[in-house]
Design brief:
The chain is α+β, with helices and mostly antiparallel strands and about 350 residues long. The protein folds into three domains: about 130 residues, no CATH class; about 80 residues, Nucleotidyltransferase, domain 5; about 70 residues, no CATH class. The protein has 13 helices and twelve strands. It has a five-stranded mixed β-sheet, sandwiched between helices. Helix 1 packs antiparallel against helix 3 and helix 6 runs parallel beside helix 13. The chain starts with 8 loop residues before the first helix and ends with a helix.
Length: about 350
C-alpha cells in the first residue's frame, strides 16, 4: 500500500532535495514560467528560484531570511542566493501559476495512479477545501471557497478538476469520503460521478420510521419487516446498478431461522428499494453495512493530512499564497512517495 513517509533531516541533505530539484523542475513547467516572465532583468533564473522555494517549503522555514540562510548552508545545491526582494516578487508571480503546479503534480503522479486505492476524501481547513487519496494520505487538489459557495459546490469543482487533470486516476475512484458538512454530495456523487458517497447525515435526532410497501425504514437506511413478535432488520443483499435499487432479504430465510409469519409475509421473497425513494437516506452502499463503516474509518486520518499540509504553509501570508503553498506541499509529499520507492 502506498503511504507518504516521513523524511529524515539527513535524507533531505543527502538525497531528498537533489531528487526533488531534478524530478520537479521539468521542462514544461519551467518553460511556461519563463515564457510568462518575459524580458527584463534576469539576475536569478526561474529554475533557481523554484528550486529554492521547494527547498524552503520542504524545510518548513518560517521566513524568507531563514530560507536564504539555509541556502547558504548548501553550497553544493545553490551557487547563488537570491535577494529577499527577488523571492517576494517570485512568490507573487507564482500565484498566477497554481493550476500549472497542479498539472506538474499530476504529470509526475501519472505512473503511480494504478497503485492508488479507489477511495478519495474531501476535507477543509481555513476555508480551503481539498481532495486527498485516503490510503496514502496524499493531497490531490485544493480550492479556496468563495463567500457565496456551499461546501458541496466547492467539492464539485474539485472533483471536476481532478477528472480533467487525471482521467486515469479518476476512472479508478469508486468511493467518496466526507464529513456531514458535505451532505449535499450524497446525491451528486452517484448521479454525476458514479462514486459511492460515504458521508454521514448531519441530523442526529431520532426520527420516526417511514413506511415503504410492507416494510419500514429509518433515517440511517435500516430496513425492517414487521415479523411475528416485533420488527426484524432485513439483510442487505447488494446494489443493482442497472435498476438503481438496493436489495434486501428476509432475515429468517437468509439465516434459516423461524418466523411464524413467513408463509403469509409479502416480504418473504425479499424487497427492492430504489435509491430515488430518498437519495439522502438510501445510497449505493448503505450506511448500515459493515463495508460502509470500514471505508469511513479511513477518514480518521484527515487530521494528520491537514497537519502535514499546514506544516508547509509557514511562508504564506495571504489567501492566494496559502493556495500556492498548499499545491507546493502536495508536490513535496508526492516527492516523498517517489523518493521512498527509489530508496526501497
Amino acid at each position: 500500500m502506498l503511504k507518504v513517509p516521513a523524511v529524515k533531516k539527513s535524507d533531505q541533505m543527502d538525497g531528498f532535495l537533489p531528487f526533488v530539484h531534478s524530478a520537479f523542475s521539468d521542462e514544461i513547467f519551467i518553460n511556461t514560467l519563463e515564457d510568462r516572465r518575459g524580458r527584463g532583468r534576469n539576475d536569478y533564473t526561474i529554475e533557481l528560484l523554484w528550486k529554492a522555494l521547494l527547498s524552503g517549503v520542504a524545510g518548513q522555514v518560517s521566513s524568507v531570511e531563514q530560507m536564504r540562510r539555509k541556502m547558504k548552508e548548501q553550497p553544493d545545491l545553490f551557487t547563488k542566493i537570491p535577494s529577499a526582494f527577488s523571492f517576494s516578487r517570485f512568490f507573487t508571480f507564482l500565484c498566477g501559476f497554481s493550476t500549472d503546479i497542479e498539472a506538474l503534480f499530476f504529470r509526475k503522479a501519472h505512473d503511480l495512479a494504478p497503485e492508488f486505492g479507489c477511495v478519495i476524501a474531501v476535507s477543509q481547513f481555513d476555508q480551503i477545501h481539498f481532495l486527498w487519496e485516503s490510503e496514502s494520505g496524499l493531497p490531490l487538489c485544493f480550492q479556496m471557497a468563495l463567500p457565496h459557495e456551499t461546501n458541496t459546490q466547492v467539492a464539485e469543482k474539485l472533483i471536476d478538476r481532478l477528472r480533467s487533470l487525471s482521467p486515469v486516476f479518476s476512472s479508478r475512484i469508486k468511493y467518496l469520503l466526507g464529513s456531514s458538512s458535505y451532505e449535499g454530495l450524497i446525491k451528486t456523487a452517484w448521479d454525476r460521478y458514479k462514486m459511492r458517497a460515504i458521508i454521514p447525515l448531519s441530523s442526529s435526532q431520532i426520527s420516526p420510521l417511514h413506511p415503504h410497501r410492507d416494510a419500514l425504514y429509518d433515517e440511517q437506511g435500516m430496513v425492517y419487516c414487521q415479523a411475528a413478535g416485533g420488527m426484524r432488520a432485513m439483510v442487505f443483499a447488494g446494489f443493482e446498478e442497472k435498476r438503481n435499487a438496493l436489495k434486501y432479504r428476509c432475515m429468517a430465510r437468509h439465516y434459516g431461522t423461524e418466523c411464524k409469519k413467513m408463509a403469509t409475509c409479502p416480504l418473504r421473497s425479499g424487497l427492492r428499494i430504489p435509491i430515488s425513494l430518498d437519495e439522502r437516506i438510501f445510497t449505493p452502499l448503505p450506511r448500515t453495512s459493515y463495508r460502509w463503516g470500514q471505508i469511513y474509518s479511513l477518514y480518521r486520518s484527515q487530521e494528520s493530512v491537514i497537519a502535514e499540509v499546514r506544516s508547509h504553509l509557514q511562508l504564506a501570508n495571504n489567501d492566494m499564497k496559502k493556495i500556492l503553498f498548499c499545491r507546493v506541499a502536495s508536490v513535496l509529499l508526492l516527492a516523498r512517495l517517489l523518493y521512498s520507492r527509489i530508496k526501497g
